[in-house]
Fold this sequence. Notes:
By secondary structure, this protein is mainly alpha-helical. Helix content is 33%, strand content 4%.
Amino acid sequence: MDCRRGLKRWNKEIEKHGVDMVLTLPHRAFHRRIGMFADVHVSPDGRIVTADDWAGQAHQWLPTQEDHAFVASLMQPVTASGQMASWIAPPWRGIHGRPIEYEYVKFH
């Protein structure tokens, strides 16, 4: 439910900026490995597919090794006080009104 509400908000923003695209959630059985869907291959739109079809199309539906490598390349630690990783926007204010430069975590 929370994901659905979040997507609704994002889609309003996307529409507001004139982008011709709508984000959707996959079917609840998509890529499940537990419960009653554990042994079924289901596409994002809810179609039951064969294992061969799944193997041939999964790279279109799920992150690839290259995608994982790209994200890992972004994940460079930043430990300097007041600094943010390049992919994180700095907050407007610090926690409990403290400055952004406050040493929230002490590295020893």
